[in-house]
Amino acid sequence: MAEQWELQTSDERSADQILNFIIFCEDEVSEPYYFSSLEVSGKSKINCLPNQKQGKLNLDNTIAYCREGGLIVFDQNGYRVNAESTENIWCVYDRDMEDTDFEKIKVANHIAFDTAIQTAGIAGINVAWSNDAFELWILLHFEEVSTETMLHREYIYERLTALFKTLHPDNEDFQAMVAHPQFYYKNILKKKQPFITYVLPVLHDRTEQAIARANNLEANFNHNIAFHLRNPCTQVHHLVKLILS
What we know:
two-stranded antiparallel ribbon; 10 helices; 7 strands
């Protein structure tokens, strides 16, 4: 797989230079299989833990798991990544807005999203959050996304549905699948085999464009804007760049 990633810049590392990642993923297919596909023998080792739930629940699971292994300790009145740890510990989760109408979302839910990210930062845990969904990162492989309007994940799924109908034109099985009137990205391509077979292969050559577009989104929000208001936005590109460094 290494030849597919043009962002690879260094030769094979010695054992003590290999980047080791523990990635706590919210879902059980898209995120873990995507990040696992970035692993390059001799350069990185990626251990994805799927189905770790959303937001603070993901963070709680991360702390519990890492505490058990000595990667996180209770120090100076709080949990913190062990200074001697060489693991790159990441939480990956979505905002998953509870309503398409932003005004109908409870303030407490906004604050929960913000404080989970803040708590992770204090503890030294990296968070690759997406607002509103991880699939925003997938969409950025294909097109720019405007920040003029907040986007609910359903918009992202609809765009991916339309885009994937134009892909794999020579694959009869795929064309039969997307021709079905019930074809919808969320219901079909987030499943294990379709994701591995039809989604992952078309992402590899578009990684640099996705990173550039994610950087552009992030640049639209200054650090005085609460995390829940940074929509559409994703931090997944920071993890991807580190894995591919």
